[in-house]
């Protein structure tokens, strides 16, 4: 399983718009082949900080996600909302298998 933690910090005035755009990406992503999870997490002490937890069956499935129309639309929609560049952190899932 391929897991990516995407660390995101958005400008305070863009939190609601970011959440709306990310909800649309989440809803489409969970229907992708090979998707196991696509969780959107917000820091309770800082509403501008998010982590996207993306789990796919394989690295190929995760890479295919980056070519979907919904991902490309999300990427473009949120680009100017970012307070800093988002950072993806690839992880190897040990459990569950």
Q: Which properties best describe this structure?
A:
Alpha-Beta Plaits; 3 helices; 4 strands; globular; single chain
Strand-helix topology:
Elements: E1 2-9, H1 15-29, E2 35-42, E3 49-56, H2 59-65, H3 69-78, E4 87-92
Antiparallel strand pairs: 1-3, 1-4, 2-3
What can you see in these coordinates?
The protein is 33% helix and 31% strand. It has 97 residues and is of the alpha+beta class. It has a single domain, classed as 2-Layer Sandwich (Alpha-Beta Plaits). It has a four-stranded antiparallel β-sheet. The N and C termini lie close together (7 Å).
Number of distinct helices: 3
Whole-number count of domains: 1
Total number of β-strand segments?
Answer: 4
Task: Note the run of SSEs as H and E.
Answer: EHEEHHE
Task: Work out the helicity level.
Answer: 25-40%
Radius of gyration: 13 Å
Poorly predicted regions = none
CATH topology: Alpha-Beta Plaits
Question: What value does the average pLDDT take?
Answer: 96
Structural class: alpha+beta
Could you tell me how far the N terminus lies from the C terminus, measured between alpha carbons in angstroms?
Answer: 7 Å
Strand order of the largest sheet: 2-3-1-4
Tell me the overall shape: globular
Q: Approximately how much beta-strand content do the residues carry?
A: 25-35%
State the CATH class. Answer: Alpha Beta
Largest sheet: 4 strands, antiparallel
CATH architecture name: 2-Layer Sandwich
């Amino acid at each position: 399983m391929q897991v990516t933690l995407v660390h995101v910090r958005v400008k305070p005035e863009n939190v609601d718009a970011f959440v709306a755009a990310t909800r649309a990406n989440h809803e489409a992503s969970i229907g992708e082949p090979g998707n196991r999870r696509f969780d959107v997490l917000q820091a309770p002490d800082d509403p501008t900080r998010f982590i996207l937890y993306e789990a796919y069956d394989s690295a190929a499935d995760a890479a295919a996600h980056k070519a979907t129309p919904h991902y490309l639309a999300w990427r473009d929609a949120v680009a100017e909302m970012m307070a800093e560049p988002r950072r993806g952190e690839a992880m190897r899932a040990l459990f569950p298998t």
